[in-house]
Amino acid sequence: MSDKSYLDWPFLEPHHAALEAALETWAAGHLDDAAGHADDNHAPGDHAGVDAACRRLVRLLGEGGWLRHAVAGTAHGGHVDTIDTRALCIIRETLARHDGLADFAFAMQGLGAGAISLHGNEDQRRRYLPRVAAGAAIAAFALSEPQAGSDVAAMQCAASRDGDDYVLDGEKTWISNGGIADFYVVFARTGEQPGARGISAFIVDADAPGLEIAERIAVIAPHPLARLRFRQCRIPAAQRIGVAGQGFKVAMSTLDVFRTSVAAAALGFARRALDAALAHATQRSMFGQMLSDFQLTQAKLADMATGIDAAALLTYRAAWQRDAGRTVTREAAMAKLTATETAQQVIDAALQLFGGMGVVSGQPVERLYREIRALRIYEGASEVQQLIIARELLRAAAAPNGGQS
Length: 405
Hints:
By secondary structure, the chain is an alpha+beta fold. It has 11 helices and 10 strands. It has helices at 14-30, 37-41, 47-63, 85-98, 100-119, 122-134, 247-281, 295-323, 329-354, 364-375, 382-398, and strands at 139-142, 158-162, 165-176, 183-189, 199-205, 211-216, 225-236, 240-241, 285-286, 289-290. The strands form 3 sheets. A 4-stranded mixed β-sheet has the order 1-4-5-8. It has a 4-stranded antiparallel β-sheet with strand order 2-3-7-6, with no helix packed on it. α4 (85-98) packs antiparallel against α5 (100-119), α4 packs across α7 and α5 runs antiparallel to α7. The protein starts with 13 loop residues before the first helix and ends in a 7-residue tail after the last helix.
């Protein structure tokens, strides 16, 4: 059983502990990570299995009411009117501990619909958010391009105004839920100003003429992933989210909400790895004693537990600050950087304790090893988080009184 003492920390409220308990019970009855989903039961590059598994999980999460936490507005299917970042983190940590693909399915519903929750108009919210919350529509967030990942200002996908429409041309890649999404929130250059100030956000339905799935992408921990191509893809101007030229702000504000939850998912993976390591170390006999009796094993377990708690403190601090209405750019970056890097180390240590069994395909620690690797890259690689943290530190240092009020 994972350590849940964090639920008593002052960053959280009683209803967060109740949420975790309810989800824990639901997950135990509905999620079967032991089956391994499509990554163990289908050949690499066979997307049908993982697509079907992801669709099933979105439906289950919707039926269970958990996707209501991923959208804002009770009038549009949301659990509350403003997204509760701490609830997002608790849900992602719990789901990740049980089933990595379930965490992915939940996260992408939130990220894919996040721009609509935060910046969409009433009509857009009414048409899309209730379906996302119910698990009846799958959402996707299309920001990255072949030459514009972390460097969003290098975006080349363009949207030109043509009367009451916009016409999109270009490509997006590394798009989670690509190929199974019912709609995509797409960021494209509209040219109001150079660089990041000339980007706008649009909702593009999957069946829009001119949108095609150019390539399905297979990765080490299979998720639905694709490269999109837009060829004279015409959409109504009413599908633009927010003000023209403000798409970069739309993207960053959306990522600010969900970046902290990436840290929480990493915590879920790390806690499961520690649980597995503890169980194995106390059951494995070596040289006349248990593996857990060796001081080297004890030192490794101590480092794993300490790293997890340190990452959890940063994660729930950032989530609490955002829910309190404070700017969390630096804190969210610290949380994501620390939690994902720490989880990689914890899972690697757990795999090492398992020895040869740790690298057997389909074993829990082997799957965790593949699952965690992507978290150090998406929604801002670790190196980008370091740049963000340093930039915020230097900005504060240059401010009057060192940034102190």
